[in-house]
C-alpha cells in the first residue's frame, strides 16, 4: 500500500468520469439533442446506439421519437342542429423536429398543454358546424340498405307472404361529410399550429360520441315509444293474419261442404232417374199386373199384428162362407 | 492498544479473503448475465448500447454480459385480449368466469345510425407480430389498440340501424371493425395483428330494454296467433274434405243401389209377368189367396162383416171372442 496505488486509483476514476461524460446511449424510440451551455449544437440525433460528445461542456437532452397518445377531455358541444353531445377524442402524435420541440414546448407536459388547447378548439369548431348525424355516421350506406329492404318487403308482399315490417325509426338524413372526414378535419386544422412546435399529428379519432345526460333520457323515451308502436303494429299484423286465415277457413269449409252436397245430389238424382227409367220400362209392359202384385205386397208387408181388421163377407175370400160355389 | 492490534490483525486476515470473494462474485454475475432463455411463446428483442440488435427465437442464447446487451421478452405467440364494456373478473379452475359489467357503460353505449343507443360489448384479440415495433414504435401500444377499437366500433355501429346492430348485423360489424382497425394500426406501424373482433352482449340500453323485449314478445305473440289460426285451419279443412268425400261416396252408393234394385225388381217383374201371361186368371187368384193367408196368420184381430146381417156386428172374431154378449 503505497502512494503508487492511490495515484492509480485516482487515475482510473478520472478516466471513468471522462468516459461517462463523453459517451452516451440513445435508446431505441428516443432521439437526442446536444447542447453546449444551453445552446443546441448540430442536428438532433435520431439513430439509436452509442454516441459521444465533448465532456463536461456539452449536455444531452432526450426526446421521445415514438408515436405518443393524447387523450382529450370529453367536451360538451352543441351541434349545428342544436343537439348537446359529449365528444371524447384521442389523438396520436410524434415529435418530428426535436429542436423546435425543445425550444417551443420544452417537454411532453408542455406539448400536452398545447395539444389540449388546439385539439379541443378544433374539435369544438368542427363538431358545432355540423349536424349530429355527420359525427355519428360515416357513409350513406344505411340509406342504400333501407332502400334495399323496402324493395325486399315489396317483393315479399307481392308474393303474399306475411311480412313483419320492423319500422325504421329515428331520422335518417343524408350526410355530406361523415365521421372519418370530421376527424380528419379536426386533425387538419390543428396540424398547422402543431407543426410550429415540431409536432406531427398522426390522427385524431372520435372515440366516443354520446348524448348529454338530459338528452339521453329523452332519446330513451323516444326509443321506448317507438318500440311500443312497433310492437303494437306487429300484434295487429298478427291479428290481421289470423283474421285472413279464419276467413279462408270459413270460405273453404263452405265451399267444400256445398260442393259435396251438390255432387251427392247430382249422383243420387242420376241414380234415381235411371232406376225410374228401368221401372217404367219394365212395369209399363203390364201396368194392371204390376198394380195387383204391388198391392198384394203392400198388404203382406204393411199390416201389423196388432191391427184390427174388418172384412166384408162379400169379399172374394169369404164368399164361400155363404155359398160353396 | 492491544485491542487495536487485534482488530487490525483480524482485518488483515479477512482482507486476504476479500479479493477471491470479489472475483468469485464477478464470475458468477458474468455467467448469469451471459445467457438468457426464451420461452416457446416468446421472442426476445436484444438491445446493445440502446440500439436494436435483433430478435431471437425460443431457446437458450448468449449475450454480452453486465448490462451491455439488454433483452426484452415479448409474448408473440400468445393471443392477447382487450375487453370493451366489461372486464373478465375472475377465472379459476372450478369457478366459471364471471364478468364485471357495472361501470363500463360509457365504454359500451354508442349511437346507431338512426340516432338510437345500443349497448355493445366486444373483445379484440390480437397478437404481437413484430416485437421490436411493438416495443418502440409507439409509447402506449395497448392504449392505442383500445382507443382505435372504440373509435372504429362506434364508426361501424354508427353506420347501421339499431335493429340491425341488435340482431342480424353482428358478424358483419365484427369483421368490418377488424378490417378497419387493422388498417389504422398498420398506419401506426404498431407491429400488431388483430386476430379477431368479437361482439359479446349486444343489448338495448337498460332503460329501454323492456320495450325491446315487448317487441320480441309481440313477435312471438304474432307468430302464435298465426300458428293457432293455421292450426285450426289444418284441423278443420282436411276433416271437412274427408266428410265431403264420404257424402259423395254415399250418394254414389245410394244411386248404385237404386239402380240395382230397379234392375232386380224389373227383372223379377218381367220374369213373373212372362209366366203370368200364360195363365193370368189362376195366377192372380193364387197370389191373392197366398197373400191373404199370410195376412190372416199374422193379424190377431179380424172381424168379418156380413151385409145381410144388419145390426148384429160382428159375427166372428178371430181372437176367439164371439159376438152376442
Give the gist of this structure.
The complex is a heterodimer of chains A (325) and B (325). Chain A is of the alpha+beta class. In chain A, 55% of the residues lie in helices and 21% in strands.
List keywords for this structure.
heterodimer; A: 325 residues; alpha+beta; Tetrahydropterin Synthase, Chain A; four-stranded antiparallel sheet; three-stranded antiparallel sheet; 9 helices; 10 strands; B: 325 residues; 13 strands; rod-shaped
General description of the model:
The complex is a heterodimer of chains A (325) and B (325). Chain A is α+β, with helices and mostly antiparallel strands. Among the domains of chain A are: 62 residues, no CATH class; 109 residues, Tetrahydropterin Synthase, Chain A. In chain A, 55% of the residues lie in helices and 21% in strands. Chain A contains nine helices and ten strands. In chain A, the strands form three sheets. In chain A, strands 6, 7, 8 and 9 form a four-stranded antiparallel sheet that branches. A three-stranded antiparallel sheet of chain A has the order 3-2-5, with helices on one face. In chain A, strands 1-4 form a two-stranded antiparallel ribbon. In chain A, helix 3 crosses helix 6. Chain A is rod-shaped, with a radius of gyration of 54 Å. Chain A starts with a helix and ends with a helix. The mean pLDDT of chain A is 86. Chain B folds into four domains: 73 residues, no CATH class; 125 residues, Tetrahydropterin Synthase, Chain A; 73 residues; 46 residues, no CATH class. Chain B is built from eight helices and 13 strands. Chain B is of the alpha+beta class. Chains A and B meet through strand 6, helix 4, helix 5, strand 9 and helix 7 of A and strand 9, helix 3, helix 4, helix 5 and helix 6 of B. Strand 10 of chain A pairs parallel with strand 12 of chain B, so a sheet runs across the interface.
Amino acid at each position: 500500500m503505497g502512494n503508487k496505488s492511490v495515484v492509480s486509483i485516482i487515475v482510473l476514476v478520472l478516466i471513468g468520469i471522462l468516459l461517462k461524460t463523453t459517451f452516451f446511449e440513445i435508446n431505441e424510440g428516443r432521439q437526442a439533442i446536444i447542447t453546449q451551455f444551453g445552446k443546441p449544437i448540430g442536428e438532433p440525433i435520431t439513430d439509436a446506439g452509442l454516441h459521444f460528445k465533448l465532456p463536461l461542456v456539452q449536455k444531452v437532452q432526450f426526446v421521445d421519437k415514438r408515436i405518443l397518445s393524447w387523450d382529450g377531455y370529453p367536451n360538451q358541444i352543441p351541434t349545428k342542429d342544436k343537439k348537446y353531445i359529449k365528444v371524447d377524442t384521442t389523438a396520436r402524435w410524434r415529435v418530428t423536429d426535436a429542436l423546435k420541440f425543445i425550444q417551443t414546448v420544452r417537454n411532453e407536459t408542455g406539448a400536452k398543454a398545447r395539444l389540449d388547447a388546439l385539439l379541443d378548439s378544433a374539435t369544438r369548431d368542427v363538431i358545432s358546424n355540423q349536424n349530429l348525424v355527420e359525427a355519428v355516421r360515416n357513409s350513406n350506406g344505411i340509406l342504400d340498405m333501407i332502400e334495399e329492404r323496402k324493395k325486399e318487403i315489396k317483393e315479399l308482399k307481392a308474393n303474399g307472404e306475411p311480412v313483419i315490417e320492423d319500422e325504421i325509426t329515428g331520422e335518417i338524413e343524408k350526410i355530406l361529410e361523415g365521421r372519418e372526414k370530421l376527424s380528419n378535419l379536426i386533425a387538419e386544422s390543428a396540424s398547422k399550429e402543431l407543426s410550429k412546435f415540431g409536432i406531427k399529428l398522426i390522427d385524431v379519432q372520435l372515440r366516443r360520441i354520446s348524448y348529454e345526460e338530459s338528452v339521453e333520457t329523452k332519446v330513451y323515451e323516444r326509443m321506448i315509444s317507438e318500440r311500443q308502436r312497433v310492437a303494437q303494429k306487429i300484434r295487429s299484423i298478427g291479428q290481421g293474419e289470423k283474421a285472413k286465415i279464419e276467413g279462408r277457413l270459413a270460405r273453404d269449409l263452405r265451399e267444400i261442404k256445398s260442393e259435396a252436397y251438390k255432387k251427392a245430389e247430382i249422383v243420387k238424382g242420376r241414380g234415381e232417374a235411371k232406376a225410374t227409367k228401368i221401372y217404367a220400362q219394365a212395369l209399363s209392359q203390364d201396368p194392371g199386373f204390376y198394380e195387383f202384385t204391388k198391392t198384394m205386397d203392400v198388404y203382406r208387408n204393411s199390416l201389423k199384428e196388432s191391427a184390427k181388421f174388418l172384412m166384408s163377407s162379400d169379399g172374394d175370400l169369404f164368399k164361400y162362407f155363404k155359398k160353396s160355389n | 492498544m492491544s485491542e487495536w492490534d487485534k482488530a487490525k490483525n483480524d482485518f488483515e486476515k479477512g482482507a486476504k479473503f476479500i479479493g477471491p470473494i470479489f472475483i468469485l462474485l464477478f464470475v458468477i454475475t458474468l455467467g448469469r448475465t451471459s445467457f438468457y432463455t426464451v420461452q416457446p411463446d416468446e421472442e426476445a428483442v436484444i438491445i446493445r448500447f440502446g440500439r436494436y440488435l435483433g430478435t431471437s427465437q425460443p431457446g437458450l442464447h448468449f449475450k454480452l454480459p453486465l448490462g451491455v446487451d439488454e433483452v426484452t421478452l415479448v409474448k408473440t405467440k400468445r393471443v392477447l385480449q382487450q375487453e370493451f364494456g366489461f372486464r373478465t373478473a375472475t377465472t379459476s379452475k372450478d369457478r366459471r368466469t364471471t364478468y364485471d359489467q357495472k361501470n363500463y357503460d360509457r365504454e359500451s353505449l354508442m349511437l346507431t345510425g338512426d340516432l338510437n343507443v345500443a349497448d355493445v360489448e366486444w373483445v379484440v384479440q390480437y397478437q404481437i407480430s413484430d416485437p421490436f415495433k411493438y416495443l418502440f414504435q409507439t409509447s402506449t401500444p395497448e392504449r392505442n389498440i383500445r382507443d382505435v377499437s372504440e373509435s372504429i366500433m362506434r364508426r361501424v355501429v354508427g353506420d347501421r340501424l339499431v335493429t340491425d346492430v341488435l340482431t342480424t348485423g353482428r358478424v358483419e360489424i365484427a369483421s368490418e371493425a377488424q378490417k378497419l382497425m387493422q388498417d389504422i394500426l398498420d398506419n401506426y406501424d404498431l407491429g400488431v395483428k388483430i386476430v379477431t373482433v368479437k361482439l359479446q352482449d349486444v343489448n338495448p340500453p337498460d332503460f329501454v330494454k323492456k320495450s325491446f323485449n315487448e317487441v320480441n314478445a309481440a313477435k312471438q305473440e304474432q307468430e302464435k296467433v298465426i300458428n293457432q289460426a293455421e292450426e285450426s285451419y289444418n284441423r278443420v279443412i282436411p276433416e271437412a274434405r274427408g266428410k265431403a268425400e264420404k257424402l259423395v261416396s254415399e250418394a254414389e252408393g245410394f244411386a248404385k243401389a237404386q239402380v240395382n234394385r230397379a234392375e232386380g225388381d224389373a227383372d223379377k217383374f218381367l220374369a213373373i209377368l212372362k209366366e203370368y201371361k200364360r195363365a193370368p186368371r189362376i195366377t192372380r187368384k193364387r197370389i191373392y189367396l197366398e197373400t191373404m193367408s199370410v195376412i190372416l196368420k199374422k193379424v190377431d184381430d179380424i172381424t168379418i162383416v156380413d151385409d145381410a146381417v144388419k145390426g148384429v156386428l160382428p159375427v166372428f172374431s178371430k181372437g176367439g171372442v164371439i159376438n152376442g154378449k
